[in-house]
Task: inverse folding
């Protein structure tokens, strides 16, 4: 019996992937760029065990067994890894042995964060470690077939998923633009919004968008290629102004396309819109862009902010969106934030302006997670295993 345990990060898109040109191979209609978040705060963790004595492949997700169905994304990923193992002549474990997989997210599903990206990246990375397959662009094509955005979670820092042109998808790969060390003071506040509405899943939402939205073609053909070039340049130069503007515009365009879908997909709620207004007012008060929002297929906001500006931004967020559980100890999660001192950089005039921002949203968030740019997946030592004797703990 041989076992491997790994963690893999969540990534948040700055230029969104939305729309496929091939459903099964998961080939996108446009390139996308994301930032990988630190696994210290958010991650998926997976243990894969292979044994000659296992009778069938089995998987447990957050403790519950999930079916290993023929033709599923899970089976497809496993087949692809086996193909690479054979091509690599990997000797460590025979691909004929059945495997058991246990996977967990260290963040609640309710947080509505991209759990499938971290989950599939972790699965594929763990299998690659099991069969001794090196991390490569080719491996990203395997993660891509689990969930499109997962291919970007195989690298740390800033990552571009190239749409590729070939029908077999072999050139639809993720590549790192810059490592996490390139812009280490890039931080994120995730505002987890209270919301119980049932939303259209990403896979379905983007299918409908490709079928019915007229705007989506213009986005894929014209807007995204320009933005990819501008954002790559902004990342290289650590130019937060351009980075923030493109990020916010691209989030807005993605939601415009969701609304242009017929019937429309509504992912942002009233609180999300209040957050977007707040960020624009805040930036105006500060005299330059200090924060950038982005929203995925749900109401939660990710605010990008440089480390030195986190205390002031958080202070302003707490003033405009006060919460009764602010002092509960579980409300503000992740990296600690120094309190703004008595002579904050943001002067009294600014403070007053923020106070009078006409946003009145009490208890709008479940909690706030403070995290930062991080590295790609990594293998952990055996004492981190999620299994004992091939079964979940
Ligand atoms: C809005 O990767 O979850 O987060 O490929 O169908 O599994 P599938 O979709 P998924 O879509 C993510 C969409 C997004 C934008 C992004 O991450 O680029």
Result:
């Amino acid at each position: 019996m041989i076992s491997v345990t790994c963690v893999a990060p969540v990534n948040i898109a700055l230029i969104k992937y939305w729309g496929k040109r091939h459903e099964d191979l998961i080939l996108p209609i446009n390139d996308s760029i994301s930032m990988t978040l630190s696994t210290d705060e958010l991650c998926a963790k997976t243990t894969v065990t292979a044994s000659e004595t296992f009778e069938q492949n089995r998987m447990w997700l957050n403790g519950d067994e999930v079916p290993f169905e023929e033709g599923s994304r899970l089976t497809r990923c496993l087949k692809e890894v086996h193909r690479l193992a054979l091509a690599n002549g990997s000797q460590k474990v025979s691909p004929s042995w059945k495997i058991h997989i246990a996977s967990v997210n260290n963040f609640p599903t309710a947080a509505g964060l991209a759990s499938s990206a971290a989950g599939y990246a972790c699965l594929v990375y763990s299998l690659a470690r099991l069969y001794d397959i090196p991390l490569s662009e080719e491996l990203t094509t395997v993660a891509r077939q689990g969930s499109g955005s997962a291919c970007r979670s195989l690298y740390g820092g800033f990552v571009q998923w190239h749409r590729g042109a070939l029908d077999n998808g072999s050139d639809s790969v993720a590549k790192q633009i810059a490592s996490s060390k390139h812009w280490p003071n890039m931080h994120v506040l995730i505002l987890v919004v209270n919301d119980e509405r049932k939303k259209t899943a990403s896979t379905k939402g983007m299918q409908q968008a490709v079928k019915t939205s007229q705007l989506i073609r213009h986005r894929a053909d014209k807007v995204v290629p320009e933005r990819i070039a501008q954002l790559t340049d902004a990342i290289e130069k650590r130019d937060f102004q351009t980075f923030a503007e493109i990020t916010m515009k691209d989030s807005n365009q993605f939601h415009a396309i969701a609304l242009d879908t017929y019937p429309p997909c509504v992912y942002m709620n009233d609180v999300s819109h209040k957050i977007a207004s707040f960020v624009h007012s805040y930036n105006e008060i500060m005299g330059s862009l200090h924060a950038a929002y982005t929203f995925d297929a749900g109401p939660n906001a990710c605010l990008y902010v440089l480390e030195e500006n986190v205390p002031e931004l958080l202070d302003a967020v707490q003033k405009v969106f006060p919460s009764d559980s602010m002092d509960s100890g579980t409300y503000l999660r992740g990296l600690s934030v120094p309190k703004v001192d008595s002579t904050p950089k943001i002067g009294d005039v600014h403070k007053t302006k923020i106070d009078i921002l006409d946003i009145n949203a009490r208890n709008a968030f479940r909690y706030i997670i403070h995290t930062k740019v991080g590295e790609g997946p990594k293998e952990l030592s055996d004492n981190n295993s999620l299994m004992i004797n091939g079964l979940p703990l």
In short: The mean pLDDT is 93. The CA atoms of residues 76 and 225 lie 30 Å apart.
